[in-house]
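Audit log entry. Action: structure prediction of a protein-small molecule complex. Ligand: zinc ion. The ligand was supplied as SMILES and no pocket hint was given, so placement is left entirely to the predictor. Protonation state taken as written. Sequence taken verbatim from the request; no trimming, no tag removal. Recorded inputs:
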Amino acid sequence: MLPLDSQFVRCPWCGERFEALIDASAGDADYTEDCPVCCRPIAMHLHGDDDAAELWVERE
Ligand SMILES: [Zn+2]
């Protein structure tokens, strides 16, 4: 897979879907990104391996 990818996630605050850029080249990552719709902080958890990246979100 490409190291840079994007995935649609649903904001845990406002429920809107948006496209999040993910960088799976570094493997697992935890970071915070503000929702582009409601601007509230979303905790992003990325699990990456050789052929797939999985991203899930929760309220910060
Ligand atoms: Zn939101």
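Audit: result stored. DSSP finds no helices and five strands in the chain. The longest strand covers residues 41-48.
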